[in-house]
Design brief:
- By secondary structure, this protein is of the alpha/beta class.
- The chain contains 13 helices and 14 strands.
- It has an eight-stranded mixed β-sheet with strand order 2-9-8-7-6-3-4-5, sandwiched between helices. The protein has a four-stranded antiparallel β-sheet with strand order 10-11-14-13, with helices on one face. It has a two-stranded parallel ribbon with strand order 1-12.
- Strand 7, helix 8 and strand 8 form a beta-alpha-beta unit.
- Helix 11 packs parallel to helix 13.
- The protein is globular, with a radius of gyration of 21 Å.
- The structure holds 4'-deoxy-4'-aminopyridoxal-5'-phosphate.
- The site of 4'-deoxy-4'-aminopyridoxal-5'-phosphate has 13 residues, from helix 4.
Length: about 400
Amino acid sequence: MAIQTTDRARRMKRLASSRAVTDILRLAENPDVISLAGGLPDPSVFPLDRIRESMDRVWRDQGREALNYGPNPGFSKLRDWIAERTGRNETLDLESDDILVTSGGVEALNLVAMSLLDEDDTVLVEAPTYMVALHVFRAYGARIEAVPIDDEGLDPDALDSKLRELDRVGRKPRLMYVIPSYQNPSGRTWTEGRRRKVVELAHTHDVLLVEDHAYAELTYDGPRPPSLKSLSPENVVLIHTFSKIFGPGVRLGWVVAEPFFIGQLGLCKLGTDQCANTLAQRLVYEYAIQGQIDAQVAASIQIYRRKRDLMEAAMKKHFPRETAWALPSGGFFIWVRLPEHVDSEALLLRAIDEQKTAFVAGPPFFHDGSGKNFLRLSFSFVPEAMIEEGIARVGKVLA
Ligand code: PMP
């Protein structure tokens, strides 16, 4: 039997808009195109020789375990290591039981949604936010509500009014998903003041915060503000990933939460993959205990800071005066505001077709498809030598 559109689950219709984005990104994979679209790490940050030494040790000493199933919440030594390091970095008192190792941050989001959301439950997000998070919440049939961010982060007054408005109609949000540090897509980092206000509001209205820490370690200027988790350990679930501090190919991330909730997430995980990739977990652990993760983060920061600065310098030279952006102090992205009447989706098609260059248009990052006059540039993956040419081409389309 051939599966027809009419046979699909209702959720497939809700997910259709994500497909449009991947279709366009596929056009950007043409080798003639200079892509400033995808948020991939720079391949030069992977220290292949050191990683091979760790891989050799795993293979030699633990090959048979590494090819077998592992414990549902993760390889115990890796959980211990994550608990110790996250505890130290975020000034939290953590045990191994507070950690679930996942197949990347995306699976972590999926498990959180699976365990907490019934159809029609309300979820709060930032506007804009990570498009894959919107995809996951849509898959579970959530009603998504958004609160805008500005240069200092999430707007606490807008959050307060939104929470009151929802309260009046009996729609208490099940969770609020936020990316306070070096956000994807906007590059914004919430100030410490904003963090304290949002944590307080969430506490007052009894809303669980889900904090995505994906880029938080990639800090280019100055100290980074405290995590929400460190400000309110009980009311925040933290999601982190090895994708930007090691490599996304291992597909490993983790959740920090209290042991009961970790158990609930583990139950959901029985239906996704039972346990995260055992070989990858043992590799990352061997690499990590040599101090290599911290060394890799330090080296990555140098590379990305330089690429960010090159991209901004090129933007100053090639972009029309009517465009605006804020220099991100970490992460992978520069978020550009265009004049109100400009349609970034139409511009993107022209950029690919006429200038052989690509970025991501604004609307997929907004729950309601608004944000037409924004675009996201990524400086992480494009080779340094092609940054200026890529920006000059985008500049031509903008002009
Ligand atoms: N959160 C955000 C904000 C991201 O940008 C990403 C990666 N693009 C992730 C989570 C998760 O990625 P992964 O599944 O590779 O850990």
